[in-house]
């Protein structure tokens, strides 16, 4: 199945969070923080949203940092994705 976001929305797939700390301590599932880094898998066309022209500044394959609890989680074909507005993306990681 193919996902095509509308307007200024993007579809992202979360990147796995670290399972050990820098000092080597293994974290159980409940102790891990929700990851904030993701990879973009689909980008909407942009356009006019709420009377303002929106230009999409991200592309498929970009790694980004997003707001911690932004977006809507969806599960498609066994994979988990998050659909969110471009404005919920805080930065690109290069």
What does this molecule look like?
With 94 residues, the protein is an all-beta fold. 0% of the residues lie in helices and 43% in strands. The strands form two sheets. The protein has a six-stranded antiparallel beta sheet, with no helix packed on it. The radius of gyration is 15 Å and the shape is globular.
Write the layout of secondary structure elements.
Elements: E1 9-14, E2 37-43, E3 47-49, E4 52-54, E5 63-66, E6 72-76, E7 79-85, E8 89-93
Antiparallel strand pairs: 1-2, 1-7, 2-5, 3-4, 5-8, 6-7
H/E element string?
Answer: EEEEEEEE
Strand arrangement, major sheet: 6-7-1-2-5-8
Biggest β-sheet: count, sense, barrel? Answer: 6 strands, antiparallel
Over the alpha carbons, how many angstroms does the gyration radius reach?
Answer: 15 Å
Percent of residues in β-strands:
35-45%
Report the span from N to C terminus: 29 Å
The number of distinct helices, counting runs of at least 4 residues, comes to: 0
Helix content: under 10%
Report the uncertain regions.
none
Mean pLDDT: 87
Envelope shape = globular
Q: Return the structural class.
A: mainly beta
Number of strands: 8
Brief write-up:
This protein is an all-beta fold. The chain has strands at residues 9-14, 37-43, 47-49, 52-54, 63-66, 72-76, 79-85, 89-93. The strands form two sheets. The protein has a six-stranded antiparallel β-sheet with strand order 6-7-1-2-5-8, with no helix packed on it. It has a two-stranded antiparallel sheet with strand order 3-4.
Short key terms for the protein model shown above:
six-stranded antiparallel beta sheet; mainly beta; globular; about 45% strand; two-stranded antiparallel sheet; about 90 residues; single chain
């Amino acid at each position: 199945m193919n996902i095509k976001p509308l307007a200024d929305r993007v579809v992202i797939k979360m990147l796995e969070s670290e399972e050990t700390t820098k000092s080597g301590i293994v974290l159980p599932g409940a102790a891990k923080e929700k990851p904030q880094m993701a990879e973009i898998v689909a980008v909407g066309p942009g356009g006019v949203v709420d009377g303002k022209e929106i230009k999409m500044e991200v592309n498929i394959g970009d790694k980004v940092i997003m707001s911690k609890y932004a977006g809507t989680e969806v599960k498609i074909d066994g994979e988990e994705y998050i659909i969110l507005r471009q404005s919920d993306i805080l930065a690109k990681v290069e």
